[in-house]
Amino acid sequence: MEEKQAILANVLRKVLAKDRSILARREDLIAAMGILVPVAAMREYRALTTALQESNLGEILLAADQKSPEERQAALGQVREMLLEKNMQEKTVERVIATLTDALDWGKEAQAEQAAPAAGAQTAPQAGASQPQMPEAEKPQAAAAQQPAATQTPWACVCGHQGNTSAFCTECGRSRAEGERQAAAQAAPPVATAAGTQRNAVPPVHPQVWPEPAGQAAGGAAGRSPAEAKKRMALIAAVVVLLGILVFFGVREFGSQGSGSYASLVGKQATETAKEAKTDLSLGGLDLGDKKSDIEKAKLGKENDTKEESGFVFHYYDDVQVATDGDEVVGLKSVSDRLATKRGIHQGDSLADVKKAYGSDFQKSAGEDGMTYYEYAFQTDAGEEGLLRFAIRNSDQKVGYISARLTRYEKAKAQPNTQAAAPAADARGAQVALNNFYNAISHKDYSGAWQMMTPEQQKRMGDYDSFRQGYSTTLSSEARNVTIASAAPDKVVLTYRLLARDRMPGGKVKAQVFDCSATMVPSGGTWKLLYTEAKQVSSRVE
What are the residue ranges spanned by the domains of the chain? Predict the structure, then answer.
């Protein structure tokens, strides 16, 4: 393994030592490594972060971590094929695989098994046979080169890192010869010079750009010819110019927010430091009660879509949905596991993790989407009441999504006659509810769409997992020309044309058009989907 790979592997090993499960949380892993990785290993870091962002290799390797060596090798092979399919260069893939294998300590058993037969295979030269003589100065290096890596004794580097077993220090990158020589220099007793001053017998340890010529005292110019001095000065001037160029372009690159910038590689770290959460009614650093201008400060990424519905404006991002009322943030809902609450809970964490972070002072209720809701009451920075919800999947007791909302709107709905009368009197609300259902499908908010159906319709769809899987290839679903066919206090029938686009195997897109009808019924202060019918009008492959 190359020196820079060994440095990055050591960084990853330190991160995994604190939390092995972080391997499956790519953004957390990238951010944690970004804090520790030195500039010297930045190229390897970029290759690894690209691999993490392009695949689910972390989940694959974590699943194989406690399995047999054969199963681990199979997992590595799966990762290798996956990255090659993403058009990553083969040499880069092999560097990434080597770094991961070393950091996970998966290769130690194999190295030990290979070292034993290798050691036994060495035979002594025959007695009396003529052997070529090697200069004395080269014998130590040759002996070190012939020694198998698995049998090298651990060594301590001058930087303080102990237990190194490779040819380079995994902490600072020094070679073994340099690290041990400089360590010996620090420990060497002082000796007298001709001038009567004291200095170490070996040159002291300092960061050096240029190694001193053999036999020349550190810092001295004795024995250096004018030609050598001029050459040295020219080289120093060239290095200064080169460093200036590197610093200029490095600052411009790492300071930008482009796709290739350092800030984008440690995306979660940059997001968290850009805006810190003030209260527990927050997600990804954005708090309920914040202003619209705070959304940009939270660095949520590019806004994918914006919808105005029922007096609210919904802003859709890759990882979160934000609801605003005027200039105020009034609702948040997670879409992925990349963002966390103020206390560090992510979508996908366990119910035990939630209770450990937030305690047992919660309100528990059954959901209609195969989940159970655990809600904690908190206040905004301005003192307004709100609820933080953890929707726990009944199937595996893990967080399906996280949401935060203000309770002012629920109190308004609870006023006498409001809850039952509003839907019955306003068939327009049924149209809005139908559009909300298909918008949720288009934005892959399957749990939200599931909640918009009645229990009868949910049964017709099967269970929640079947429903979600059925829409897994859907790119968009749009209801157009929604018309009220009939309206009554307890039922509204709508007709509309549905435009659906789905991803096909091989990457092509199938576009279909349907003539549909939907029966909507009032339930819990809103409209829900009771029954649908559809007839295909056209289908084409794009």
Answer: 3-112, 275-414, 423-542
pLDDT in tens, the chain (542 residues): 677 788 888 889 988 988 889 988 988 888 888 778 776 777 788 889 888 888 889 999 999 988 998 999 999 999 998 888 887 888 888 989 999 998 898 866 555 544 545 444 444 444 444 444 544 444 444 444 444 444 457 878 777 777 777 666 666 666 677 677 766 766 655 544 444 444 444 333 333 333 333 333 334 444 445 566 666 677 777 777 677 666 555 544 444 433 333 333 333 343 343 568 889 999 988 999 999 888 888 888 888 888 887 778 899 998 899 999 888 999 999 998 888 999 999 999 999 999 999 998 888 888 766 889 999 999 998 888 899 999 999 989 999 999 999 988 765 544 444 333 344 346 778 888 898 899 899 888 999 999 999 999 998 888 888 888 889 899 999 998 888 888 888 889 999 999 999 998 888 999 999 999 999 999 877 889 998 999 998 999 88
Instruction: Give the C-alpha separation, 104 to 432, whole Å.
Output: 52
Instruction: List, edge to edge, every strand of the sheet that includes 509-523.
Output: 474-488, 491-503, 509-523, 526-541
Q: Which pair of tokens denotes residue 523? A: 């339930």
CATH topology of domain 423-542: Nuclear Transport Factor 2; Chain: A, (3.10.450)
Question: What distance in Å separates the CA atoms of residue 374 and residue 390, rounded to the nearest whole number?
Answer: 5
Spatial distance between the Cα atoms of 307 and 180, rounded to a whole number of angstroms: 65
Residue 491 bridge partners (DSSP) = 488
Nearest-angstrom CA–CA distance, 515 and 537: 7
**275-414 has CATH 3.40.33.10 classification:** yes
Q: If you write DSSP's letter for every residue of 420-485 in order, what string do you get? A: HHHHHH-THHHHHHHHHHHHHHHTT-HHHHHHTB-HHHHHHT-SHHHHHHHTTTEEEEEEEEEEEE
Question: Do residues 173 and 4 touch, judged by C-beta distance below 8 A?
Answer: yes
Residue with tokens 């655990």: 374
Q: Which residue has the tokens 């002082």?
A: 190
Residue 403 parent element (H or E):
strand 399-406
Q: Of 510, 446, 503, give the one whose Cα is nearest residue 475.
A: 503
What pTM value is reported for the model? 0.34
The three-point CA angle 403-407-411 to 5° equals: 145
- The answer for residues whose C-beta is within 8 angstroms of residue 249's C-beta and 6 or more apart is none
Query: What is the rounded distance in angstroms from the CA atom of residue 12 to the CA atom of residue 245?
Result: 30
